[in-house]
Amino acid sequence: MLQRPNLLNLFISIFWACWVFYGVVSDPQTNLLMIGCSPPNQFVVSDYTIFNDNLNLTLQEIREQISDPNKHFATAREGNGGNPVSTLLQCRNYLSVADCVRCLDVAAAQIRSCSTGSYGGHVVYDGCFLRYEAGDFYGETKGSLTKVLCGNQNAREVIPFTATAQNLLMNLQTATPKIPGFSAATKIQVPTNGETIYAFAQCVGTVTQSGCLDCLKAAYSNMQICLSNSEGRAFDAGCFIRYSTTSFFADNETIDITPLVKPGSSSNKATIIGGVVGVLALVLVLLALFAWTRRSQSPRRVPRGDKTETSKLEGPITYSYQDLRSATKNFSDENKLGEGGFGIVYKGTLRDGKEVAVKKLTLRNSRKMEEGFESEVMLISDAHHPNLVQLLGWCSSGLIRILVYEYMKNNSLDKFLFGEKKGFLNWKQRCDIILGIASGLTYLHEQFRVRIIHRDIKTNNILLDNDLQPRVADFGLARLLPEDRSHLSTKFAGTLGYTAPEYAIHGQLSEKADIYSYGIVILEIISGQRSKALKDDGDTEDDFLLPKAWKLYEKGMHLELVDNTLDPNEYDADEVKKIIEIGLLCTQAFADLRPTMSEVIGLLQSSDLLENITPSMPLLIVTD
After folding, report:
1. Annotated catalytic residue 414
2. Using an 8 Å Cβ cutoff, are 87 and 59 in contact?
3. Does residue 486 sit in the same domain as residue 584?
4. Do 221 and 177 reside in the same domain of the chain?
5. How open is the CA angle 452-456-459, to the nearest 5 degrees?
6. Is there a single domain that holds both residue 76 and residue 196?
7. Interstrand relation of 317-318 and 391-397 (parallel, antiparallel or unpaired)
8. Span 112-139, mean pLDDT?
């Protein structure tokens, strides 16, 4: 009975928006960038009929608010029947009122694709951002909806373009939080060719100035991988930043951000950039001439296994087998760093003195490896994230396949939890590691151009850099999950004790299998106890990490799980309980109940406790 008047009001509003606001909708910029839905949870929403009615009311209220010509941002809350909904809309400030209304209409229709049981959802377009949740999320800035989208065309002159775009975006991230409404559109010309770069930054209206700055700094940092392209976008829960060589806002929307940047910084940087660009251009010309001369004096064909330089200007280096054998002292045991399911890893020192990790792969199917090896290497090397181990190059010689990675002096996380360095990590370092792993997995699952499932997340595959920040290793070496499938049935390729039950028992693989393994790693980091598969050999459940953690959680004795090498004065009891419960949420028996990695980041970064989210009992697998 209530839907007919609401539908009528919707049509009247659309008609009014289209004819009153200058009679035409110019461009609502409804290019979809991201959509996400929270999983069903009866502890969050007790009555979805009431919840959906409340959602409808908030959308109607927001639509009424943004009909004001001066408003591009609106929030609304409804809490009838004890099933509250908070909703937020942010339109880009350069949109007309009619375009903002139209973007909302498209977003509201799209967000309905979330299932009836979802307690939250979000959609991001070039023109607007719409989000609703059962809880309060208005103060969130970064970590929960992180995403970077790069264009598919390189800039005309990469080096001067990159320098100019970097300077423009750096100034934009500094200036935008100082502007009322947290929004700025600007443009600049590349000095060498006059090409124009258009850029826009914005924060949602509910964040603080410092929160806006933090969010834009993170987005700017993530955007670095795009800067050789002619277009890029980066955004999170609290901000949005975009640049392009194609204008996406009217010229009269631009502002001069120079006065808002540190005095003299822009002009000084421009001078420096101009000088650097000139020098680099000259160097590139000389290098090109040198390379052309060398090429004309050398054979046209080089055997694939004997290359020692990069095969392309971009992409992984192709190493010769002889160089890698020399770097690892003939793959000697003294240079051996570790051994896993994919092969043996050695420390190598290249001729230029650079230290690398050399992984000599174990081949199970040489023909299949031959067909897919090079394309997979190119894919893996294209994955760039601060919490992933970077692939530097590869070698293919006969039946031998080798991958070359950056070297991590601190080795793997398990050494710090169960090995010779046990007790070295304090509470803050452990929390940073937990968050960093989540960030790396979020990139693989949700942000990289191909969704990658790791399959074997464990502390041995988490390396630590010089600052003890985590780097996920061995990603991409297992089969990739195609974009058009939600799961696939495959041969088991994990480690018992870390492996999700649906994967270990039925071979059903999805990104939720990684999330299960990540939950186990959380419990290991907190407890300092290694997880192992349950065996029917007389051991009690208390000898195994997951059942022990679950029993302590049920009794409210979370702190009994904490590693006894930690100083109790270092950590807050509520924070410990919350992180343990996040680990248990990740290890729930049913994959659909586990959060996504971006949702895990949101939970970790939220200051709230998990009072309305209760993990269900994990399924314990017993092996012979």
Report:
1. no
2. yes
3. yes
4. yes
5. 120
6. no
7. parallel
8. 87
Q: 362, 381, 406 — which closes off a domain?
A: 406
Same domain, 443 and 477: yes
Token readout for 228 is 């050789």
Residue with tokens 């031959």: 370
Tokens of 529: 């106890």
In this predicted structure, the answer to whether residue 261 has a pLDDT above a threshold of 60 is yes
Instruction: Enter the tokens of residue 347.
Output: 């420390």
Spatial contact of 491 and 429, defined as CB atoms under 8 Å apart: no
Note the pLDDT tens digit of each residue in 480-525. Answer: 333 333 343 444 444 557 788 877 776 777 899 999 999 999 999 9
Within this chain, do residues 609 and 494 fall inside the same structural domain, yes or no?
yes
Surface-to-core class of residue 139, CB atoms within 10 Å of its CB (0-12 exposed, 13-18 middle, 19+ buried) = middle
* Residue among 105, 214, 414, 456 flagged as catalytic: 456
512 and 427 housed in the same domain: yes
pTM higher than 0.90 for the full model? no
Share of the chain above pLDDT 70, in %: 78
Question: 199: domain CATH number?
Answer: 3.30.430.20
CB 93 within 8 A of CB 180: no
Distance CA 301, CA 511 (A): 42
Domain-located, residue 296: no
* Residue located via tokens 């002096």: 409
Give how many domains the chain has, as a whole number: 4
Q: How far apart are the first and last CA of the chain?
A: 59
- Give me the domain span that covers residue 214: 152-271
Q: Where are the beta strands (DSSP E) in 68-143?
A: 73-78, 85-91, 120-125, 128-133
Confidence band, pLDDT 50/70/90 cuts, at residue 228? confident
**Tokens at 65, concatenated:** 């608010």
Question: Are residues 365 and 217 located together in one domain of the fold?
Answer: no
